[in-house]
Structures are given as structure tokens and as C-alpha cells.
């Protein structure tokens, strides 16, 4: 599923922006 793969990549980008290394799936729900 190309859409799902793209959503996962977007999630990785979102998580990687966190400065303290914490993983907060805050924006994950917006992808689905």
C-alpha cells in the first residue's frame, strides 16, 4: 500500500524532528 508507506515515512520525519529524542506520536492520527 503506497499510501501507508508514505504515511510511515511522514511519521518518521515527524518523530525525527523532536529535539530531545522522545517519540511522541502526536501527529500520527492526522495521517490516517
Number of helices: 1
> What distance lies between the first and last C-alpha atoms, to the nearest angstrom?
13 Å
Radius of gyration computed on alpha carbons: 10 Å
Give the CA-based shape.
elongated
Low-confidence stretches: none
Count of extended strands: 0
How confident is the prediction overall: mean pLDDT? 67
Secondary-structure element series: H
Major sheet details:
none
Strand portion, in percent? under 5%
Summarize the structure.
47% of the residues lie in helices and 0% in strands. It is an all-alpha fold and 32 residues long. The mean pLDDT is 67.
Describe it.
The protein has one helix at 2-16. With 32 residues, it is mostly helical. The longest helix has 15 residues, at 2-16. It is elongated and about 30 Å long. 0% of the residues are buried. The mean pLDDT is 67.
Keywords:
single chain, mainly alpha
List the helices and strands and how they pair.
Blueprint: H1 2-16
Amino acid at each position: 500500500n503506497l499510501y501507508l508507506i508514505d504515511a510511515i515515512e511522514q511519521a518518521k520525519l515527524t518523530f525525527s524532528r523532536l529535539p530531545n529524542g522522545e517519540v511522541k506520536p502526536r501527529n500520527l492520527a492526522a495521517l490516517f
